């Protein structure tokens, strides 16, 4: 239906309008130019929009995207391998002089689906209203450089069309903000000499008809547009192919490995720490930073020999207790390393509850990728595509080290006790905190060896998390130096999400426990969330919980919109929030003030109820309420 509407709109014209005599160079079929005049003054808005979807490819004009340091626009051709837009990212738009009055906030999400809501995100086929909230960008320094950011609070469907509509948004005088001239002409059917108005009459007749059919009159609209999300195959095919191809290559035993360092008693909890490297199929043109995926003639990643990647293994003192040892893979934090937590909560947990812990670097988002990420936001955002390429290999390495641990490592002499392996390979689990909790959503969708995981202080998508994270402040400073316009900076983040969906959980979480990937078991996750978190906003965890269908374990600290509450013991995916008595976080898109509250980000993982709950979850798949009442350890 959408394709027919788009085609019709390209040939439709009003009798009172004449087609332009010269088409602008670099113009797009639905616009006749590189920018959309329904949001004048900022090329590329509104975003995402079907005006940038041409012949099933995300396509921008030569001048559509923000210019780096005010010079050359971002190369739009780098997005043409995407067949739609992110199903989790926010919608960006502008209305000159708009204020937050009446707009839904993170505390009033339910109001966003009321009949009189000023903003509407609607399923174009069913008319269903999608709950959301709207930020008036805190980074804006003037009315003409302040984006409105509409965040869905649940992940949208793949390959699906949505409509965004705005009405009765107020200015500082309490009056409705005026629509742009181009949108007014589209809405009212009035004459216009703008080529894009003529080209889009049929498309917008369809948009307005769908809105009116579900209770939103066109006469009230200040802005409306449609967009289509990327297909599941387009998002997941490269990494799924790598998984299946690599696991077939290494077989049931997993990759070969070499131990390069043995440390006896590195701390009071660990008997032996092993460092080594595994030899894995490589899909990059080089294994280190800057590596890019190599593709075959079928458009899928292609093996490019092998590479060695380091791992670390922690064998705790309790291996001598005669109790079978489970396997526990750790996912590290932001741009961190495999060595995190080796002397802290991971070591304590492994000793106390009989697990062998291990980890690899999540390359692409590990310590050696810091320079690439910094240069991405300060010098050339297109470098971030290379970081996402590396994340494909990084996630693959996560899967391969688990296969190795369940396979050939069980026969390693260092884990033989009384003549047999101390490892119970049927007890294989994942746990990660912060970035490890975030990317754990991807891991738990992909893994064929692990079915239960712990996601500590997680969230998705990154475009929801970044502005609200204290970790992002330095990167945002560099981003704004490269793109001085606050609106342009928000658009750059939205563009990054188009690439990032292929590795971050926004592309994967819907398939953790339902509609799984071919050859993949169902998985369940336990989510531990810190209310007031400065680094990973709980809004992202709530987004993840709604997308998963996770339940909020009673007794709760607070009700969460769209997340069902239930008494334990529970099976299935579950969220548990910890309340440390902190002041409310800002409703706007900036992080909590560190001078006003202590960051609880790292606290849940250290608590006794958390330890007990994790072990029960890993062993039995049951979530019990180990806190005395709501989890509020003050």
Give the key terms.
3-stranded antiparallel beta sheet, globular, 14 helices, single chain, alpha/beta, 634 residues, 3 domains
Q: Sheet with the most strands?
A: 11 strands, mixed
Q: Give the overall shape.
A: globular
Question: Roughly how much helix do the residues carry, as a percent range?
Answer: 25-40%
The tally of strands reads: 23
Q: DSSP helix count? A: 14
Numbering strands along the chain, what is their spatial order in the largest sheet? 11-12-13-15-14-18-19-20-23-21-22
Overall mean pLDDT: 94
Instruction: Please give the radius of gyration in angstroms.
Output: 25 Å
Low-confidence stretches: 1-25
Could you walk me through the main structural features you see in this protein, from its secondary elements to its overall organization?
- By secondary structure, this protein is of the alpha/beta class.
- The chain folds into three domains: 2-230, no CATH class; 236-425, no CATH class; 434-461 and 503-581 and 595-634, no CATH class.
- It is built from 14 helices and 23 strands.
- The protein has helices at 2-11, 181-188, 195-199, 201-213, 232-250, 345-353, 370-378, 383-406, 435-446, 462-465, 473-482, 486-500, 538-548, 608-620, and strands at 53-54, 57-58, 67-68, 72-73, 91-93, 119-123, 132-136, 148-152, 161-167, 221-228, 257-267, 270-281, 306-316, 325-331, 355-360, 416-417, 420-421, 423-433, 452-456, 524-530, 551-554, 565-567, 574-578.
- An eleven-stranded mixed β-sheet has the order 11-12-13-15-14-18-19-20-23-21-22, with helices on both faces.
- α9 links the parallel β18 (423-433) and β19 (452-456).
- α1 crosses α4.
- Residues 1-25 have low confidence and may be disordered.
């Amino acid at each position: 239906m959408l394709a027919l509407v788009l085609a019709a709109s390209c040939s439709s014209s009003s009798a009172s309008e004449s087609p332009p005599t010269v088409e602008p160079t670099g113009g797009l079929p639905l616009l006749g130019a590189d920018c959309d005049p329904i949001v004048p003054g900022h090329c590329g808005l509104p975003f995402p929009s079907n005006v940038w979807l041409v012949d099933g490819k995300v396509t921008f004009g030569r001048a559509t995207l923000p210019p780096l340091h005010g010079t050359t626009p971002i190369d739009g051709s780098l997005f043409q391998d995407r067949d739609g837009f992110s199903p989790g990212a926010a919608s960006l738009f502008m209305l000159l002089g708009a204020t937050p009055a009446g707009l839904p906030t993170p505390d009033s999400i339910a109001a966003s689906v009321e009949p009189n809501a000023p903003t509407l995100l609607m399923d174009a086929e069913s008319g269903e209203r999608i709950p959301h909230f709207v930020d008036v960008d805190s980074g804006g320094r003037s009315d003409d450089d302040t984006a409105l950011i509409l965040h869905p609070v649940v992940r949208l469907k793949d390959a699906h069309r949505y409509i965004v509509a705005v009405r009765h948004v107020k200015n500082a005088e309490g009056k409705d903000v005026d629509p742009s001239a181009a949108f007014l002409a589209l809405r009212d059917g009035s004459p216009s000499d703008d080529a894009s108005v003529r080209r889009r009459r049929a498309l917008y007749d369809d948009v307005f008809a769908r809105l009116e059919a579900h209770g939103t009159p066109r006469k009230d609209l200040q802005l409306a547009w449609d967009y289509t999300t990327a297909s599941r195959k387009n998002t997941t095919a490269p990494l799924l192919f790598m998984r299946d191809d690599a696991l077939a290559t290494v077989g049931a035993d997993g990759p070969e490995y070499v131990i390069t360092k043995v440390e006896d008693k590195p701390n009071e909890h660990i008997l032996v720490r092993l460092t080594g490297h595994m030899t894995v199929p490589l899909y990059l043109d080089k294994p280190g930073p800057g590596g890019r995926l190599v593709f075959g003639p079928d458009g899928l990643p292609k093996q490019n020999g092998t590479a060695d990647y380091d791992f670390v293994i922690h064998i705790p003192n309790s291996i001598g207790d005669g109790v079978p040892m489970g396997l526990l893979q750790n996912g590290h934090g932001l741009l961190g390393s495999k060595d995190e937590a080796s002397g802290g909560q991971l070591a304590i947990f492994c000793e106390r509850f009989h697990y062998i812990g291990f980890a690899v670097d999540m390359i692409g988002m590990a310590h050696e990728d810091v320079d690439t990420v910094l240069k991405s936001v300060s010098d050339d955002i297109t470098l971030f595509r290379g970081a996402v390429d590396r994340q494909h290999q990084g996630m693959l390495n996560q899967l391969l080290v688990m296969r190795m641990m369940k396979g050939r490592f069980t026969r390693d002499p260092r884990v033989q006790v009384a003549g047999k392996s101390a490892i119970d390979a049927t007890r294989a689990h994942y746990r990660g905190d912060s970035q490890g909790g975030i990317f754990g959503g991807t891991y738990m969708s992909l893994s064929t060896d692990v079915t239960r995981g712990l996601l500590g202080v997680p969230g998705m998508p990154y475009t929801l998390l970044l502005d609200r994270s204290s970790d992002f402040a330095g990167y945002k400073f560099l981003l704004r130096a490269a793109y001085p316009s606050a609106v342009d900076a928000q658009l750059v983040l939205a563009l990054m999400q188009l690439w990032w969906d292929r590795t971050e959980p926004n592309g994967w979480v819907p398939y953790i426990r339902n509609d799984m990937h071919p050859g993949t078991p169902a998985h369940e996750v336990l989510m531990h969330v810190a209310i007031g978190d400065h680094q990973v906003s709980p809004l992202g965890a709530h987004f993840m919980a709604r997308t998963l269908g996770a339940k909020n374990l009673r007794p709760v600290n607070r009700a969460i919109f769209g997340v069902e509450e239930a008494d334990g013991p529970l099976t299935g995916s579950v969220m548990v929030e910890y309340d440390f008595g902190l002041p409310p976080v800002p409703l706007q898109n900036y992080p909590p003030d560190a001078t006003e509250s202590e960051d609880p980000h790292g606290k849940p993982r250290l608590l006794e109820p958390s330890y007990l709950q994790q072990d029960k979850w890993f062993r039995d798949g049951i979530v019990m309420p180990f806190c005395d009442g709501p989890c509020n350890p003050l």
